[in-house]
Amino acid sequence: MKLNELLKAIQPVEVAGSTDIEITGVNIDSRLVEGGHLFMAMRGTQTDGHTYIPSAITKGAVAILCEEMPEQKEADITYILVKDCEDAVGKIATTFYGNPTSKLELVGVTGTNGKTTIATLLYNVFRYFGYKVGLISTVCNYIDDEPVPTDHTTPDPITLNRLLGQMADTGCKYAFMEVSSHSIDQKRISGLRFAGGIFTNLTRDHLDYHKTVENYLKAKKKFFDDMPKNAFSLTNLDDKNGLVMTQNTRSHVYTYSLRSLSDFKGRVLESHFEGMLLDFNNHEVAVQFIGRFNASNLLAVFGAAVLLGKKEEDVLVALSTLHPVAGRFDAVRSSGKGFTAIVDYAHTPDALVNVLNAIHGVLEGKGKVITVVGAGGNRDKGKRPIMAKEAARLSDRVIITSDNPRFEEPQDIINDMLAGLDKDDMQKTLSIVDRREAIKTACMLAQPGDVVLVAGKGHENYQEIKGVKHHFDDKEELKKIMN
């Protein structure tokens, strides 16, 4: 594509050099630059792309987009100065890859908890209806039925637009994606056109990045502020921030709730470890999911599918065929000892409370709950004592252990968690640094009818220690122990 065509997507402050040149690729990583590429020098949280401009030119870049012109410019290189590189990168990427969101219906899901479940279930529902569909999620990206591994909840703008472009080129009619607060704040979704957005809930998370809950809320809200007027915004009335999210949006606002009058109203009629019987808009449906939080997730899926033009009755049939997402309330049964183990990604206080309440809702006091939980290193330290306190409040026994310690000492993280417990809590709490031993101990303590919850890692099949990812899968470990 010609550079002058690409630049129509943005408003440069200054251009030095010819714009009548062919651009064969766009990059924000200088290591990936090849001959004929446009290199965009972004200021990241770890490094500043401006320092890699000479390296990009050496590798063959013919144009440089930057927020600060180099003092010495190379001959035959075109320099484009912009006010906001983050915003420009998204717009240029989507233009280079043929404006993929003009060719498919893209729905974004944002909130603290439930994003992966809702996006994945919408992907499965529309595949059930026979469409080619794309998915961008924490667990895995899919171009119809082809998996594409993922490192981030929302990829960088280049990867994201390349993925969406491939989805459009292979005939996908719909795409569903998780939209993280980081991606909104860093404008990774700049230039994308959404057909709809879904808000799940907002609780404490990512404060290592956002610093305050208010900043975190503002990042989520901006997603709906920027939604086009012909799109829909579907928000959760059961969350106190549900209507805050949509108060300045130009889009059509719809609501869902398990508690109040709303456009999409749900109730839990029955609940057991095999699933639930639900009532959605006065229609009953049996599903293979457990817990009120999952009823809320399914209600969001139901609402979004209806807003995308599907009949309520057809969507309910599709919902009845769905299975839980990997690592989300994933049950493993012990045939020998007669207890149930649950693996769940819950890594925030609110998510942990949701899962434990769901377990109690099924047990109805007829069994004990043993919780294995840790907290990630180099992340929000403030949630550690809160998570330990909630685990102790809602469990009969608690084992505090390692999660992904990253570059922190596991014992330091455990100590931060234990600081949230009082004397009574400590009576029922053990701390075991080795996660494998912690899971083994929980299973040894379990009696027939009990439930062991292993929380925090869910679908992850690794433990990150000192920058190295070691293979570790909670569900795999449970199966080994149970056998």
TrEMBL record:
Residues 22-97 form the Mur ligase N-terminal catalytic domain. GO terms for biological process: cell division; cell wall organization; peptidoglycan biosynthetic process; regulation of cell shape. Signal peptide: none annotated. SUPFAM superfamilies: MurD-like peptide ligases, catalytic domain, MurD-like peptide ligases, peptide-binding domain, MurE/MurF N-terminal domain. Its main location: cytoplasm. Gene3D superfamilies: Mur ligase, C-terminal domain, Mur-like, catalytic domain, MurE/MurF, N-terminal domain. GO terms for cellular component: cytoplasm. UDP-N-acetyl-alpha-D-muramoyl-L-alanyl-D-glutamate binds at S30, T153, T154, S180, Q186, R188. Meso-2,6-diaminopimelate binds at R379, D403, N404, P405, R406, G456, E460. Its EC number is 6.3.2.13. Pathway: Cell wall biogenesis; peptidoglycan biosynthesis. The modification N6-carboxylysine is found at K220. It catalyses: UDP-N-acetyl-alpha-D-muramoyl-L-alanyl-D-glutamate + meso-2,6-diaminopimelate + ATP = UDP-N-acetyl-alpha-D-muramoyl-L-alanyl-gamma-D-glutamyl-meso-2,6-diaminopimelate + ADP + phosphate + H(+). It is found in: Cytoplasm. GO terms for molecular function: ATP binding; magnesium ion binding; UDP-N-acetylmuramoylalanyl-D-glutamate-2,6-diaminopimelate ligase activity. Residues 109-305 form the Mur ligase central domain. Residues 327-458 form the Mur ligase C-terminal domain. Its cofactor is Mg(2+). InterPro entries: Mur-like_cat_sf (IPR036565), Mur_ligase_C (IPR004101), Mur_ligase_C_dom_sf (IPR036615), Mur_ligase_cen (IPR013221), Mur_ligase_N (IPR000713), MurE/MurF_N (IPR035911), UDP-N-AcMur-Glu-dNH2Pim_ligase (IPR005761). It comes from the Bacteria. Carboxylation is probably crucial for Mg(2+) binding and, consequently, for the gamma-phosphate positioning of ATP. ATP binds at G111, T112, N113, G114, K115, T116, T117. Catalyzes the addition of meso-diaminopimelic acid to the nucleotide precursor UDP-N-acetylmuramoyl-L-alanyl-D-glutamate (UMAG) in the biosynthesis of bacterial cell-wall peptidoglycan. Belongs to the MurCDEF family. MurE subfamily. This is UDP-N-acetylmuramoyl-L-alanyl-D-glutamate--2,6-diaminopimelate ligase. It comes from Caecibacteroides pullorum.
